[in-house]
Backbone:
C-alpha cells in the first residue's frame, strides 16, 4: 500500500494531495496543470515536497517531520515517463539492463522486446519506445511502478497496441502501479482505484466503479468523459449477428463484436451521455439494451445537464440528460424507470479485461 | 624537410603546438566544470561568474596580458607564491605563453561546452537516477557521453584560439626565440625585418594547415560520435 501526503508551493500553484493507493492500478486523473506529474515526481524523489510523508508498505520514502528523504536512486521505484526517456546513445538491450536484469527473460517476452534488442532508440516507433521504457523500469525490480501518461504521446492504434501489455502487467506482476492519465477510457480499462485531482487537491478518491458512477464526478471528469464502469461476464456469442451477450447483476447487454470467450470477465465503460431514460418499457425501438433501473441520485449541474445515478441490480450506472427532460419526465429519487443503452455506444477503447 | 624551414621557424612551430596543446588540456577540466555549473545550477553570483569567464573575450588582449603580468609575474601575488612554494615560474617562459593562451581560449571553450550541456535533457539524468544509478554513474554513463560532442567542439575552438593568440602572449611573456616565440609572434617579428617575406609566407601556410587540420579532425570525430549516438 502506498500512502501519500504531499504539500508543495510552486509559484502560485499549491499542491495539497493526500491519498492512499492499495494494490492494483491506481489512476491519478486530472486536467493538465492539476498537479499529477508533481505528485509522481514527489514519489520518485525528483521533487522535494515542502512537507508531508510518503510511504510504500513499511518503507518511509519521505517524512518532513522525521527529516527522511531517500534519494531517487535508493527508492526502488520504476518510473515510466511520458516521453520514454530512453538513453539515445545506448542500444535497446543496454537501456533495458541499465538498472538491473531482474526477471529479464520474462519481461522481454511479456513486452515483446526480443526483436528490438540490438536497435537504437532513434529507430523505434513511439509505441516501441514506451514498451522498452516499461521493460527498463521493471528490470530494476521496483517495489512500485509509476506511469506518467505513458500513452499520451501515442496515436490511437499505438495505444491499442500497448494497453494489453499494461493489462497483462497489472494481472501478472503483483506490484502496485500508479498511473497518471487524463483519459477516462484508460482509467476504465486499467484502474482499480481512482484519485481525481483538481487544482492541486484530491477531490474524490475510491474504487473506480464507485467513483465513476457518482453523479458528482461528472463535472470533474468532463461531461463527455463521464460514465460508469461495470464488470460483466460473457454469457453468449451471437455469431450470426456478430454480437456478444454480457451478463451482470443488472441484466444482460448485447454489444457488437466478438469480445472474448464464454465466461471471460469484461470491464465496460458506459458513457453517461449515451444512456437514454424512459418511464415506460419502450417498444418499437432500435436499441437492443433496455435495463430496469432505480434512480438513486439526481445531481443538477451548472449547465443545462443533469447527472442521474442509477442502480441496476447491484451495479451503478450513470446517465446524463438535459434538465428540461428531467423536469418534463418528473424524475425523482427512488423511481423505477428504464435505461436504454445503444449497442454501439460502448466503443472498443472502453472495453477491457 | 628540414631545409624547408630555418631552425628558428621549426622552434616557433613546435613551441606553438606545445603551448596550444598544454593550454587546451589544462583549461579543459575547469572549462567543463564551469560550463556545467553555468548550464545547470542557479546560485547567487551566477551572472558575475558568467561575466568573469567572458572577460578575456571582451577585454583588449593587451590589458589581459598586462593583468597576467601583474598577477602572475615574479613580483605578483600568485606568481610570487608559485615561484617560492613550487618553483613554478611563468614570467618569460613557455609556461607563461600557455597560461596566456589558455586564459584567452577559456571563454570560447566554456561557451561551446555549455551549449553541449544545454542540449542534454536533464530528464535523462532523472531517469537514470530512478533506475538506481549513483550520481557518479549517471555522470559517466549518461551526461558525459552525451555532452562529448560539445566538449570536442570546445577543445578544437580553444586549440585554434590558443594557436593564434598574440596580444596577451606578447605583453605577458614577450617573444623570446626558443622560449616564448610562437608562430604569430614570430610572423610579427619577421615582418619588422626587411626581406623576410619568404619566411613569413612559410609560417602563414603552416598556420593555415594547422587550423584546417584541427577542424578536419574535429569534424571526423564529431561524425563518428554522431553515428555512435544513432543520430545519423
Residues:
Amino acid at each position: 500500500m502506498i500512502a501519500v501526503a504531499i504539500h508543495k508551493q510552486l509559484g502560485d500553484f499549491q499542491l495539497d494531495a493526500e491519498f492512499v493507493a492499495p494494490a492494483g492500478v491506481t489512476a491519478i486523473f486530472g486536467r493538465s496543470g492539476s498537479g499529477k506529474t508533481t505528485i509522481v515526481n514527489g514519489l520518485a524523489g525528483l521533487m522535494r515536497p515542502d512537507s508531508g510523508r510518503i510511504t510504500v508498505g513499511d518503507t518511509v520514502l519521505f517524512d518532513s517531520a522525521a527529516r527522511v528523504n531517500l534519494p531517487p536512486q535508493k527508492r526502488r521505484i520504476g518510473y515510466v515517463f511520458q516521453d520514454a526517456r530512453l538513453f539515445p546513445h545506448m542500444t535497446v538491450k543496454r537501456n533495458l539492463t541499465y538498472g538491473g536484469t531482474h526477471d529479464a527473460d520474462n519481461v522481454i517476452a511479456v513486452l515483446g522486446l526480443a526483436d528490438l534488442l540490438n536497435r537504437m532508440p532513434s529507430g523505434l516507433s513511439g509505441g516501441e519506445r514506451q514498451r522498452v521504457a516499461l521493460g527498463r523500469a521493471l528490470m530494476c525490480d521496483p517495489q512500485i511502478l509509476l506511469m506518467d501518461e505513458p500513452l499520451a504521446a501515442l496515436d490511437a492504434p499505438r495505444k491499442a497496441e500497448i494497453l494489453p501489455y499494461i493489462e497483462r502487467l497489472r494481472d501478472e506482476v503483483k506490484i502496485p502501479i500508479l498511473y497518471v492519465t487524463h483519459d477516462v477510457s484508460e482509467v476504465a480499462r486499467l484502474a482499480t482505484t481512482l484519485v481525481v485531482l483538481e487544482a492541486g487537491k484530491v477531490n474524490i478518491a475510491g474504487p473506480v466503479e464507485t467513483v465513476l458512477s457518482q453523479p458528482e464526478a461528472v463535472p470533474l471528469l468532463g461531461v463527455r468523459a463521464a460514465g460508469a464502469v461495470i464488470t460483466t461476464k460473457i454469457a453468449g456469442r451471437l455469431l450470426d449477428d456478430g454480437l456478444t451477450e454480457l451478463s451482470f447483476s443488472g441484466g444482460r447487454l448485447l454489444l457488437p463484436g466478438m469480445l472474448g470467450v464464454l465466461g471471460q470477465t469484461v470491464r465496460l465503460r458506459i458513457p453517461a451521455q449515451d444512456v437514454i431514460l424512459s418511464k415506460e418499457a419502450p417498444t418499437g425501438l432500435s436499441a437492443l439494451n433496455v435495463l430496469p433501473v432505480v434512480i438513486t441520485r439526481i445531481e443538477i449541474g451548472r449547465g443545462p445537464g443533469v447527472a442521474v445515478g442509477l442502480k441496476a441490480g447491484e451495479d451503478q450506472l450513470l446517465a446524463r440528460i438535459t434538465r428540461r427532460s428531467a423536469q418534463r419526465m418528473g424524475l425523482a429519487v427512488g423511481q423505477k424507470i428504464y435505461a436504454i443503452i445503444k449497442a454501439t455506444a460502448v466503443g472498443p477503447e472502453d472495453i477491457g479485461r | 624537410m628540414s631545409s624547408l624551414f630555418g631552425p628558428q621557424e621549426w622552434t616557433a612551430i613546435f613551441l606553438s603546438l606545445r603551448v596550444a596543446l598544454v593550454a587546451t588540456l589544462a583549461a579543459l577540466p575547469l572549462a567543463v566544470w564551469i560550463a556545467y555549473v553555468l548550464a545547470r545550477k542557479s546560485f547567487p553570483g551566477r551572472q558575475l561568474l558568467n561575466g568573469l569567464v567572458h572577460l578575456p573575450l571582451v577585454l583588449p588582449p593587451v590589458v589581459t596580458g598586462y593583468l597576467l603580468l601583474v598577477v602572475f609575474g615574479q613580483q605578483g601575488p600568485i606568481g610570487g607564491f608559485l615561484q617560492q612554494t613550487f618553483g613554478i615560474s611563468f614570467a618569460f617562459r613557455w609556461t607563461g605563453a600557455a597560461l596566456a593562451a589558455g586564459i584567452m581560449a577559456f571563454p570560447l571553450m566554456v561557451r561551446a561546452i555549455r551549449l553541449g550541456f544545454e542540449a542534454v535533457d536533464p530528464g535523462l539524468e532523472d531517469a537514470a537516477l530512478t533506475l538506481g544509478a549513483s550520481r557518479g554513474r549517471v555522470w559517466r554513463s549518461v551526461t558525459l557521453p552525451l555532452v562529448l560532442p560539445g566538449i570536442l567542439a570546445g577543445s578544437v575552438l580553444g586549440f585554434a584560439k590558443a594557436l593564434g593568440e598574440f596580444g596577451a602572449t606578447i605583453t605577458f611573456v614577450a617573444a623570446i626565440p626558443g622560449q616564448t616565440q610562437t608562430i604569430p609572434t614570430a610572423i610579427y617579428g619577421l615582418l619588422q625585418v626587411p626581406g623576410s617575406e619568404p619566411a613569413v609566407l612559410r609560417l602563414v601556410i603552416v598556420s593555415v594547415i594547422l587550423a584546417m587540420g584541427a577542424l578536419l579532425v574535429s569534424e571526423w570525430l564529431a561524425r563518428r560520435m554522431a553515428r555512435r549516438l544513432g543520430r545519423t
User: Anything to note?
Assistant: The mean pLDDT of chain A is 90. Chain A has two domains: 2-212, 227-352. Chain A touches chain B through 28 residues (CB under 8 Å). Chain A has nine helices and 21 strands.
